[in-house]
Design brief:
Length: 568
């Protein structure tokens, strides 16, 4: 006799055998017992949670000759024929391979005939979300008003792909993921009946690896049984079979990352991969470990105790290890690691360079200076630096505001008076008839240019401080503010560095705006001038670049305004 997989051999045959879906089971049993069944059902939920099994039990229960409290008897001829798959009144359709409109038309033609035995004809459409739009449209009318002896049961893992016109005509039931505790109990019971020797720790790990799917848990157990024929299945066996690693490895990896030890971190990763660990599983299990570290870090009391409900599936030894790591960690660092690793997990799903991407991520986590160090001292220093920078920016903005207010009090006559005083002292510079974008003198400046030039130094300070992680401060010297048009509100900004020029045109990931747009916003925010545009020019020739006058330096050198306010 051929071998039958455990998930097929132990498929539930009655409602009471279904695990982890008690509210759904109770409702359906009551409907069958009271003969208040609906004409259409929609079962939604992740894989392996019992949707198809419950659909078959439902089909058997509504047709059973001797039901008891809504349960099928499993002994009458109808139950036996349905269990064997030979009952013509029960049709199971795989919509993944039968998703066309012709397949639905066959159903529409078939529903007009009454059942040959039993009370109902039941159509179970598995993977219903795979039906085409035309097929859904063809099914719509029949689903809304089927003959009284017809029941439709649609099962899907993607409820969002089911048209609302379909789902609104069905009784919807959402199958939740099965808890680790429930899966563990089922595996233990099944192992006893199958005479399988397995460690409790191994059972718990299989249950966690199943991710809420009973079918997956049974399939994993099947693999472990084949590996350890006639022997006890140990925790180490399960790790080897599933390509996983133990908690000590994750703890070592976390501490290497936290300490910024690149070589040690890469060595841990290499050893895990050499042992046959699947890289996706390694990353996801590391995320789970960090999640536990974070929860313990945030919930551990002065005595090191952790609420039991937060860590229901962790052994005492592993919990001690987690406590040790959590006590030497800060939440910001752990959350940052989880964020970066989660993004990595998504990236490598469709990549052909999984190992390379993982190694790059490991190096990044080790070398990121803002999230290094095992205690909160490093982060406190960062916070202190950030606070000081904010205070500096606020002071600079206040100084600029005062300066702008004083500049607005200086009219054209006042400016000419200042210029004349300078001339009387022999500081007159010979005027030349030249382009406004090259050599300039004070007489060529408009009132708007003077105002903007006086503000420019503060604008650059705020701008480079705000975006210093993307634009280093030394680029500030590679640009000159050479003109401002009062009527067009247009600034001319000449750049000699190609890197800085290209950077200003690139996008900032956080805002989705170019750095040139962010510069314009900074100018508007600090000066109060709206609708400003910036003409960006590149001049890589040093000699030509030197011919341009940075009028912010010109004004700063020749015009000094007392910005002290008198107290009246």
């Amino acid at each position: 006799m051929s071998y039958t997989a455990l998930y097929r051999k132990w498929r539930p045959e009655t409602f009471s055998e279904v695990k982890g879906q008690d509210p759904i089971v109770k409702t359906l049993k009551n409907q069958v017992a009271s003969s208040h069944t609906a004409h259409a059902y929609l079962f939604n939920g992740t894989r392996g949670t019992g949707k198809t099994s419950v659909a078959k039990i439902m089909a058997m229960a509504v047709n059973c000759e001797n039901p008891t409290d809504g349960e099928p008897c499993l002994k009458c001829s109808t139950c036996l024929s349905i269990a064997k798959g030979s009952n013509l009144n029960i049709r199971e359709i795989d919509a993944a391979s039968n998703n066309g409109v012709d397949n639905i038309r066959e159903i529409k033609e078939d529903v007009i005939y009454k059942p040959t035995s039993g009370r109902y004809k039941v159509y179970i459409i598995d993977e219903a979300h795979m039906l085409s739009s035309a097929a859904f449209n063809a099914l719509l009318k029949t689903l809304e008003e089927p003959p009284e002896y017809v029941i439709f049961i649609l099962a899907t893992t993607e409820i969002s792909s089911i048209p609302i016109t379909i789902s609104s005509r069905c009784q919807r039931y959402d199958f939740k993921r099965i808890s680790v505790e429930t899966i563990s109990d089922q595996l233990t019971e099944l192992a006893e009946k199958e005479n399988i020797l397995i460690e409790e720790k191994a059972v718990r790990y299989i249950a966690r690896s199943a991710d809420g799917a009973m079918r997956d848990a049974l399939s994993l157990l099947d693999r472990c049984v084949s590996f350890s024929v006639g022997e006890e299945i140990t925790y180490e066996n399960v790790l080897d079979i599933l390509g996983a690693v133990d908690t000590d490895t994750f703890s070592e990896m976390y501490n290497c990352l936290k300490d910024g030890n690149v070589l040690a971190s890469l060595e841990v990763l290499k050893n895990a991969l050499d042992d046959g660990v699947v890289i996706n599983r390694f990353i996801n299990d590391l995320i789970d470990y960090l999640r536990n570290v974070l929860l313990i870090n945030c919930s551990m009391d002065e005595n090191g105790d952790v609420p039991e409900e937060l860590m229901p599936d962790i052994s005492d030894a592993n919990l001690d290890r987690l406590r040790e790591d959590a006590s030497a960690s800060d939440a910001d660092t752990v959350m940052y690691f989880i964020k970066e690793l989660s993004e990595l997990s998504e990236k490598i799903k469709k990549s052909n360079h999984k190992k390379t991407l993982t190694e790059v991520a490991v190096i990044k986590l080790c070398t990121d200076k803002y999230f290094r160090g095992g205690d909160s001292g490093g982060n406190n220093e960062i916070i202190k630096m950030q606070s000081e920078a904010i205070i500096t920016l606020e002071q600079e903005m206040q100084r600029l505001k005062t300066q702008m207010e004083n500049l607005s009090k200086v009219g054209a006559a006042d400016y000419m008076s200042i210029r004349s005083n300078s001339a009387e002292h022999g500081n007159e510079t010979k005027r030349e008839e030249i382009s406004p974008t090259v050599k300039r003198d004070l007489d060529s400046l408009s009132k708007g240019e003077i105002t903007m030039a006086q503000a420019w130094d503060s604008i650059m300070t705020v701008y480079f401080e705000t975006y210093k992680q993307s634009i280093p401060a030394h680029y500030r010297k590679s640009g000159k503010f050479v003109s401002y048009s009062d009527d067009r509100h247009e600034i001319t900004y000449v750049i000699k560095s190609k890197v800085y020029f290209d950077k200003l045109k690139s996008l900032d990931e956080n805002t989705g705006k170019t750095y040139l747009e962010l510069l314009r916003e900074t100018i508007s925010e600090l000066t109060g001038m709206e609708n400003i545009t910036i003409e960006l020019s590149e001049e890589r020739n040093s000699n030509k670049f030197n011919n341009y006058t940075d009028i912010s330096e010109l004004v700063k050198a020749d015009i000094e305004i007392d910005d002290r306010e008198e107290n009246v």
